[in-house]
Amino acid sequence: MTDLIKLANVNLNHFPRHEKYGLSQQIRNTMYDVYNLIIEGEKRYHKKTSLTELDVKHQQLRMMLKLAYELDYFKYHNGKTDRSQTETDRRYLKKLKRGANFVGYRTWKSVRFIRKRSLYNFSKALKAMEINSLISIVGNAKRTATYAYFMLKLKTKGVQL
Fold it and tell me: Which string of DSSP letters, residue by residue, matches 79-102?
């Protein structure tokens, strides 16, 4: 919790100026309350009320942090938005959006790759020797760079499709 407070204080100092005594101060106070309630919960003999208060304060803290994130207050630096960071984020997301193909693989210019989940499902099906699943996964990977990897794995296991 002390690490959270240290990191959050650095970020809260960079919130917009109009939030200095608003949301920023409420988040700080709630963090300190949660910290105090953790200590209180460790030391009390009857913990039910302390834990209930801790649960409520923790949820309040989570919702305030979520609100600050949705309002993009974490992108501020010295009370102003860092345009270069948002521009960098936008460029990065643009590349990812361009590469995302929701058929089951990612594509970039001339190379396609299977998603990580498909790799996991492949290794799981290979371990269980589920031939129908293997046929489906390899069929989806046919026009990707991952196809050669799948065929090599099948060959080493001695599986013929």
Answer: TEE-HHHHHHHHHHHHHHHHHEET
Q: Regarding the domain delimited by 2-77, which CATH topology (the fold level of the hierarchy) does it fall under?
A: de novo design (two linked rop proteins) (1.20.1440)
- Per-residue pLDDT for 45 more than 70? yes
Span 6-18, pLDDT tens digits = 888 887 887 888 8
Regarding pTM above 0.90, the answer is no
User: pLDDT, tens digit, for every residue of 114-148?
Assistant: 777 888 888 899 999 888 888 888 888 887 888 88
Under 8 Å between Cβ of 140 and 114: yes
What pLDDT does residue 101 have?
42
Q: Where are the domains of the chain?
A: 2-77, 99-157
**Environment class of residue 127 by beta-carbon count within 10 Å: exposed (0-12), middle (13-18) or buried (19+)?**
exposed
CA distances from 76 to 8, 30, 37, 84, 134 (A): 13, 21, 30, 11, 48
In b/e form, how buried is each residue of 18-48, taking b as 16+ CB within 10 angstroms? Answer: ebeeebbebbeebbebbeebbeebeeeeeee
